[in-house]
């Protein structure tokens, strides 16, 4: 799953549910993995479906969003920045990696 997140291009984001759809697991599981191991990947590119991160990490994420020119406001990432499931799945499949949630 963390490999999937690494494929998200700069200036784009995905929702937990989008990652889960590609990895065949629940958004909650994605969140749990991100909480435990996400500091080793581009964690700021994974947000909830509304484009929001918890307040305690929002400020750190917005620094990355500014650097990458990710469209966002002071409250959330804009919808235009989101990758859809089919876009993320295409990136994943093009790398020839077998998806699994482990």
UniProtKB/TrEMBL annotation:
A Pfam match: DNA_binding_1
Keyword Nucleus: no
TM region(s), chain numbering: none
SUPFAM superfamilies in alphabetical order: Methylated DNA-protein cysteine methyltransferase, C-terminal domain
Coiled-coil regions, chain positions: none
Matches recorded under InterPro entries: MethylDNA_cys_MeTrfase_DNA-bd, MethylDNA_cys_MeTrfase_DNAb, WH-like_DNA-bd_sf
Domain Methylated-DNA-[protein]-cysteine S-methyltransferase DNA binding: 2-54
Keywords linked to the UniProt accession: DNA damage
Name the UniProt record assigns to this protein: Methylated-DNA-[protein]-cysteine S-methyltransferase DNA binding domain-containing protein
Phylogenetic placement of the source organism: Bacteria, Bacillati, Actinomycetota, Actinomycetes, Micrococcales
